[in-house]
Write a structure and sequence with these properties.
The complex is a heterodimer of chains A (about 350) and B (about 350). Chain A has 13 helices and no strands. In chain A, about 35% of the residues are buried. In chain A, helix 5 packs parallel to helix 8, helix 11 packs across helix 12 and helix 11 packs antiparallel against helix 13. With about 350 residues, chain A is mainly α. Helix content of chain A is about 70%, strand content about 0%. Chain B is an alpha/beta fold and about 350 residues long. Chain B has an eight-stranded mixed beta sheet with strand order 6-7-8-3-9-10-12-11, sandwiched between helices. In chain B, a hairpin with a 5-residue loop joins strand 1 and strand 2. The longest helix of chain B has 18 residues. Chain B starts with a strand and ends in a 26-residue tail after the last strand. Classes of the chains: A mainly alpha (about 350), B alpha/beta (about 350).
């Protein structure tokens, strides 16, 4: 794998060792690649675990999909036929095996209600959910960076107290409450933004996504702000910040390179975890705002015992979390060399 | 070029009250001169340095009185705009710890390039930043410059890191370099090389140097003049050789004797411990540990040492000393520690 990748290291003659100024000897590019590779393996294992869970949950939940579909007075024959058609006959292990082999071929099955392939519907609806989560993250960061900087650098007790109270209140408020409040104020009272619906094209869709994204992003932003301000406080106490200050760098450069960049690793690491919570929030917020994302798809499927859809969406959610987690881990390792030693 | 007079620094407490860490300090540095600032940890050396680069606020401290005049500019109470033209430009600063003193997330090359770019923009120069960074790294005698530039601080040894930090401090051709215990975190062999480097740079670049150390031997090697700080107050200051060979303060005498013992492989510290900040004696800071006061008061500390405030330095034998009985130390041969200093002598 390493051979196929371009490396910048020059082929030095082995018998001419350079004078020793290093403490660590591992070539840093390879070290990073190795770490990322290890995380990739872990991500694949976790994705497999997620598939097991998604499969199991549907089977643990009470209620027989076949009975639900055919109604109370179905003949045993018809039940048997449908059971076979849905691959619900054989043992649980063989059911999982056939589902997994379909998943690996990119087939998540068909909806029991509409017979439309699950993957196709997810493909249609996923962009809305991703937009919602992505925009929510952007909001969270827009809130967290200034709040984190102020909180990390201020000595004002008054500020610390009021931020502590405010952030606790905002984190504790569930997104559907925030969502409904935002709808009432900006949609119904002020009529600045639409109450529901969606348009598929890029700049226009922001109008519909703004309020839901704020609902998703605000609590996350507060969590980021708390983590970031703690991290900045620690960074600011380091001697190198004083060195940078005395070097007299331009303010934006100083703030980014000497305060934010050494402090963002915990926030990026946290993002991987937060995406899961964000997806959960999206399910609720999509319902409040009537957005046709995978959240509403999942909710409807659960209510209808449409198990291929539930299974497929849960797996997709899990898969997204795993991918984002892997990315955030890898980015932390690239942005802050100190994160490389932590596994 | 730098004159500090009656400078007092206080730590700001929770309720806005201040606890003094430096009181009425006085020091002078001339053009191209090297001044050694000696004192135990907690004596206020680092705070004094930070007051000279305007970063006291980062340590919850403020200047509570006195004046710092540097190249004709008053720095006490100076505006941010003034500080921006002084800090890093005219007065550079090398921090204590070589590991924590340098940004861990960026390569050496990127840090220095950013700095050099900022410097050349400020100076309106048009030199290529990369060439200037190379020049700086050559100046501090870094081998294999190309590979060092692509490395991050944790990949370098302590001595290399300290050299990089010094290179950064030199980026804007400062006229005064403050080195706060630049060799404390390094092993002895590397210490000597960093000191050699500082000495050479001072001569080559014509800078003045303020070298801070708790180690008299370090200061001895490099400095023209010396200031001895104890519990926030200047005990003695004057030409280095004079102060070292004929100390006129019992504390200096104790330090010199301890350093000599150490050189001979022994260990003979001044008895007692330095008082911590906020618990300073009301009068002469050194009186509780001073053998001379005991001798003068025949068993109990001498009353004159324990009344009134910390004595202000006065001129005795070509240097300033804060000892009221400095002349009793005159004419002695090899000074020894504490009580033995005046044993058998009549004041």
């Amino acid at each position: 794998m390493t051979d196929s990748l371009p490396t910048r290291s020059l082929p030095l003659p082995a018998e001419a060792p350079a004078p020793d100024t290093r403490v660590f000897d591992a070539p840093k590019r390879d070290r990073v690649l190795w770490l990322i590779g290890r995380r990739l393996v872990r991500a694949i294992l976790v994705a497999w675990g997620v598939s097991l869970l998604a499969f199991a949950i549907v089977r643990i939940v009470p209620g027989d999909p076949v009975a639900t579909l055919l109604g109370e007075e179905a003949t045993p024959d018809r039940v048997e036929v449908l059971r076979e058609r849905l691959h619900l006959d054989g043992s649980v292990a063989s059911q999982y095996g056939s589902w997994m082999s379909d998943v690996l071929r990119g087939d998540l099955g068909q909806s029991l209600q509409t017979t439309r392939p699950v993957l196709e519907t997810i493909g249609d609806r996923l962009p809305i959910t991703l937009w919602l989560i992505g925009l929510g993250m952007v909001f969270a960061l827009i809130l967290a960076i200034p709040l984190g900087l102020i909180g990390g650098l201020t000595r004002s007790n008054w500020y610390k107290q009021s931020f502590g109270l405010g952030s606790a209140a905002l984190i504790a408020t569930p997104p559907f409450v925030t969502g409904v409040l935002l709808l009432l104020v900006f949609g119904v009272r002020l009529r600045w933004l639409p109450v529901a619906g969606y348009v598929d094209t890029f700049p226009q869709n922001l109008e519909y996504l703004l309020l839901p994204a704020v609902a998703v992003g605000v609590p996350v932003g507060m969590i980021f702000a708390i983590v970031l301000q703690e991290s900045i406080r620690e960074t600011n106490a380091e001697e190198f910040v004083e060195t940078g200050l005395v070097w007299g760098l331009a303010k934006p450069q100083f703030v980014w390179r000497y305060l934010l960049r050494p402090s963002v690793a915990p926030v990026i690491g946290l993002m991987g975890y937060i995406v899961g919570a964000n997806l959960a929030a999206a399910v609720v917020v999509e319902t409040v705002f009537n957005l046709e994302g995978i959240g509403t798809y999942l909710v409807r499927a659960v209510l209808a015992r449409d198990y291929p859809v539930v299974q497929g969406t849960l797996f997709t959610f899990g898969f997204i979390v795993v991918v984002v987690h892997f990315l955030s881990d890898s980015i932390s390792a690239l942005i802050d060399p100190r994160a490389r030693t932590l596994s | 070029m730098l004159s500090v007079d009656d400078l007092s620094i206080g730590l700001v407490g929770r309720r806005g009250e201040t606890v003094p860490v430096v009181e009425r300090a006085r020091l002078r540095i001339g053009e191209g001169e090297t001044l050694g600032l000696v004192g135990e940890s907690g004596s206020g050396k680092s705070m004094l340095c930070r007051s000279l680069v305007g970063t006291l606020y980062r340590h919850s401290a403020v200047v509570t009185g006195g004046s710092i005049r540097f190249e004709g500019t008053e720095l006490v109470g100076a505006s941010d705009a003034v500080w921006r033209t002084v800090r890093g430009h005219r007065i550079a600063y090398v921090p204590q710890s070589s590991l924590a003193g340098i940004n861990p997330v960026l390569t050496v090359g990127r840090q220095l390039t950013a700095l050099v770019r900022a410097a050349s923009r400020d100076a309106g120069g048009d030199r290529s930043p990369r060439a200037r960074v190379r020049e700086l790294l050559e100046l501090v005698e870094i081998p294999r410059i190309d590979s060092v530039m692509n490395e991050r601080p944790h990949q370098l040894s302590g001595g290399m890191r300290q050299r990089v930090i010094i290179a950064g401090a030199l980026a804007r051709d400062p006229s005064l370099l403050i080195a706060d215990e630049p060799t404390t975190a390094l092993d002895v062999r590397v210490q000597a090389r960093i000191l050699d480097l500082l000495r050479r740079l001072r001569e080559q670049l014509g800078m003045s140097l303020l070298l801070v150390s708790h180690d008299l031997a370090v200061v001895e090697e490099v400095c023209d003049a010396i200031v001895v700080l104890y519990a926030g107050a200047v005990m003695e200051s004057g030409p280095q050789a004079l102060v070292r060979e004929q100390p006129r303060h019992p504390y200096t005498a104790g330090l010199v004797a301890a350093a000599r013992m150490e050189l001979a492989g022994g260990y003979e510290p001044i008895p007692g411990e330095a008082p911590s900040v906020g618990a300073w004696p009301a009068a002469c800071r050194f009186s509780p540990r001073c053998g001379l006061t005991l001798r003068l008061g025949e068993g109990a500390p001498h009353s004159r040492c324990c009344e009134g405030g910390q004595p202000q330095p006065a001129e005795v034998d070509g240097r300033l000393t804060a000892c009221l009985f400095a002349s009793s130390l005159a004419g002695e041969g090899a000074p020894t520690v504490g009580a033995q200093t005046v044993a058998g002598e009549t004041p």
